[in-house]
Design brief:
CATH topology of the largest domain in chain A: nicotinate phosphoribosyltransferase
Largest interface: A-B, 127 and 127 residues
CATH class of the largest domain in chain A: Alpha Beta
Number of strands of chain A: 19
Distance between the termini of chain A: 55 Å
Strand order of the largest sheet of chain A: 13-12-1-5-3-17-18
Oligomer: homodimer
Radius of gyration of chain A: 25 Å
Helix content of chain A: 25-40%
Largest sheet of chain A: 7 strands, antiparallel
CATH superfamily of the largest domain in chain A: nicotinate phosphoribosyltransferase
CATH architecture of the largest domain in chain A: Alpha-Beta Barrel
Chain lengths: 449, 449
Amino acid sequence: MRCLPGPCDGRRTHPRLVAMSTALLTDRYELTMIDASLESGRHARRSVFEVFARSLPGARRFGVVAGTGRLLELITEFRFREPELEWLRTNSVVDTATLDWLADYRFRGNIWGYQEGELYFPGSPILVVEGTFAEGVILETLILSVLNYDSAVASAAARMVSAASGRPVAEMGSRRTAERSAVAAARAAYIAGFGATSNLEAGRSWGIPTMGTAAHSFTLLHDSEEEAFRAQITAFGPGTTLLVDTYDVPKAVETAVRLAGPELGGVRIDSGDLPEVVAAVRAQLDRLGAPNAKITVTSDLNEYTIAALRAAPVDSYGVGTSVVTGSGFPASGMVYKLVAHLDDDGAWIPVAKKSSSKNSVAGRKFPIRSMHRGTAVAETIHVGAEPEFGIDGRPLLVPLVVEGEPDQRFLGPEGTELARAHRASVIQELPVSAFGLGEGDPAIPTHYV
Amino acid sequence: MRCLPGPCDGRRTHPRLVAMSTALLTDRYELTMIDASLESGRHARRSVFEVFARSLPGARRFGVVAGTGRLLELITEFRFREPELEWLRTNSVVDTATLDWLADYRFRGNIWGYQEGELYFPGSPILVVEGTFAEGVILETLILSVLNYDSAVASAAARMVSAASGRPVAEMGSRRTAERSAVAAARAAYIAGFGATSNLEAGRSWGIPTMGTAAHSFTLLHDSEEEAFRAQITAFGPGTTLLVDTYDVPKAVETAVRLAGPELGGVRIDSGDLPEVVAAVRAQLDRLGAPNAKITVTSDLNEYTIAALRAAPVDSYGVGTSVVTGSGFPASGMVYKLVAHLDDDGAWIPVAKKSSSKNSVAGRKFPIRSMHRGTAVAETIHVGAEPEFGIDGRPLLVPLVVEGEPDQRFLGPEGTELARAHRASVIQELPVSAFGLGEGDPAIPTHYV
């Protein structure tokens, strides 16, 4: 018997709607590798896996790590209970010994990582998982799903925030990505510096401020724009934001100020030639005696169109499609690689695939953000051994999970706020050239030592 | 008290992990519009909303509708229970009257739509929602999230299937999209003609065949490639598929055939200059006496690289990033528009936003796939009234939800199979020009009547 949220009354519901274990959000081969390594006895070899991206998407200057806090919670729920085991058994995915191993599984190893909100560059080992081979390999798919998507959104969002030059930006793209990704996207954008989201579940789950008033359908439903505006003002007061581009913008602005008075909160513009329309609306609002009414624009914006509006009297931006799809790069290209394992004599063996096009560096990494007078100058990655004291820079790995226990500071709304604050702090270390929107080299080079 | 899947033992868990109501997967403005329309009394006006895309992404020739069956289940779970209401109340999102309305909400209207797996073109009204304004508008975000993402994946996947010219294609992109989107992507790709997925939850939830054997880490874990292959063959028999590009491909192929014998199931190649490598491996397998061993390739494939391998002796393809991200177009650009509502005299009023750049056609639509000798020739969209009998074509709207009750045939694994079969059938109606991979006009024009 499974229960929905709310009182447990034994009501049966389709497993799709209540299957909250994250254990099957996994590629089949993670489980078959465990099965086969139980055969060879190698499953228990102590191993180190690392997550990194070979390059930054779109020849950008930096990336933003996001998803870590969310991931730690999903790992906690990565358990094989009877519904999962039953399905694996029925479908002969693995043998009985493996099923027993899975039934007992919870991650008991250690995870280090870049603190959520940290910046990353090509090769940055943003997550390091240490445990037995089996307990590490089984998390591969889930870890990459979360970090690849969330970091793609955060990395794009950070560019929009910087293009907005201090004006607030809100995430409004829930309808342009699958329904649960929408919540993750709102969270990632917030970490990257967005100020709010339209997504209510992101408000509930992660404590992100939510916003939104009305769409064109609301105006179209009423017999006149005036009737619609009046209803909205009655419901939310004159401080509400009215959508003014359903029919004729100047007429709508006139109606808005007439009904709401000088306390009109703001107007939203969702179409048209924005620089011109915005300037005209600003002048009209001032002329009509509503100089404090704000102008929000929301028409298919991305970092480039935001930058193009720098000279326009815009007060805030709402961004949809481009932020939730990583502005052209919806996946960050992160991979999860076995970089070392203990051999039978207790020595760490560095390992890497030997492929012409996909070179990886074998061995465990210890990354440092090398600094000069407060500015980042290199991503210095020490391979094989931890660097000694006296290094000129900031060590980047922090413990996230110790013997299976996640650090509570990084979870929930508090962890999300912490990540946002961390991003705000470390982004100031970047050289000015990092904020160019065009293609370019990473803001700092990666050095392996 | 809330319970996880499994016995209800009263264990408390963070709401993020058990919040299965889909009601907050919603933009805040959907709820504030209900609040304001309760003020004006217009919330109860009978209304029709339609979902359509103004154009096909990437100047493609056709799109594939996916997500519908999944959406119907999510709509069933779109209920405001105490946890949702409490959060809305605490955060003053809407007033008390609106909270009461939400508490009572379940969708009681009607939904028609293109059958899942159907093809669509610019303007195709792929979903039509009829109900009160409030009960229709509140579903906007969820409907668009699901259809935009799932159709983006299915539309890209259909091109890969056609590029593969009958060879099987498997979806392996779970790690390149957020963890729950991965399940939706596997489902959408399957509907579009992929044969299997690596994602286990997609197997459990939607009955999709799952596949996968081992990654490079499995080989790297062992003291030799031979030790790794031997373990895998012991676990899964000689019919397993061995990954042969960790070190040296010809050596690995030699080892594979030596250990598995002529019953070797297959080899997988994940890197390198594929046409050449594949040809060499095929020749080597034949020479070594394993002519039945299959060759699977999985190296960053998309519809173009698949097409480029047509002349190579590939037996099957595994596609990751490109399919789960819509091959460059991760959102389908679908919108949800109020197109008509009843006025106080009981007459249907067609409505549309008047904007220069985003023209919509007011009024309810009745689409027909016009046919000539078994081939589709136009998407004929009758506006305002249902066409009369005797039309030369296939009516495209089918009832999906009648007075709040979804048609069970479209749900679950059975609905997914039905959608896959429908796509396989209707895609044969397309003219040959529809299968060009370059940019072009839609395969058939859209005519409004």
